[in-house]
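Standup, Tuesday
Yesterday: got the pipeline producing structure tokens again.
Today: sanity-check two examples.
Blockers: none.

Example 1:
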Amino acid sequence: MATLDANIDTFKAMMSRRSGLAQANRYAVFMNLPLISINPGTILTNLISGNRNPLQLFNDPRDIGMLAEIVSLPGRTIQTAEYATNMKVRKMPQGYVSDDVTITFLLTGDMYIKNIMEQWQESLVDTSRKAQKYKKDGVSDMLIQTLNKENNANYTIKLKNVFPTSVSQIDLGNNNENTITRVSVTFAYDDWTRDNVSGALLGAGQRLLEKFI
């Protein structure tokens, strides 16, 4: 049996050529919230107090990325149908299904993530009036990136027309005095694609936001 001519040196060369092993703790999430999720009360309070910093008057999109503790890259499954010919059954590709994306967020003292996700859900389904609204008015796009050691994106996907389908329950208890509170949000979307230019655009957007600080 033939064997590959591989040893520790060829392995090290391969790892160097492919930027080492991917690290699961290096990632970035960027999502611009729909306009309806802006909190008018917060804007009014900041204006009255004289605070006109635009990142504090509106939801800063970087907050979502900084509070995202656990993020999943979506998978994709090819659906098949059986096709028989010459007494042999074969599988034929018929379509595809993409996984929902779940993100676990750290909760701040003002319950920021829980509040905005519930507001977002209300922008799609008004639970008080029992009314369904237009999906196009309550969706956004999301970027998920894996990063290298220099914080440059090496893999970027774009989720199109994202909206939250589920906001998890939060367990409280007297024994949780030193426990950080978290909430998990599951997002549905129309489709996801590989995005090769968003890394540069995200970096440019980051530098633009930093000018306001």
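Example 2:
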Amino acid sequence: MEKMKKKTVEKKVEKKVEAKPAETSINQSLSTRGRIFEGTVTRKFPKRIAIEFERTLFIKKYERFAKKKTRIHARLPDQMADQIQIGDLVQVQECRPLSKIIHAVVIKKIKSVEEKEQ
């Protein structure tokens, strides 16, 4: 019986050691997964932004391509709120649903308005 007790104790210790390391990102409590989008900021709110980007869509009937605009609402972290302005090019990634319309979070700022104009 003593041997069996020792084995179970060793297994428990191994499980504790194999814990996942914490992710180092802007949103430590929010895990991101899924697709990554890049777009320009069209509207800015205190906790979220709306980005817009164009995509091409093939219309089978006419055998032509059409441009469509897609709008995505993303959560704006408090650390990045003062850095991002309307017109900036940002990168967002999908995450779990945060509200009725917010399903993405801002990862990083690619270009600012001043850099785009030059």
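Quick observation on example 2: DSSP finds two helices and five strands in the chain. Residues 13-24 have pLDDT under 50 and may be disordered.
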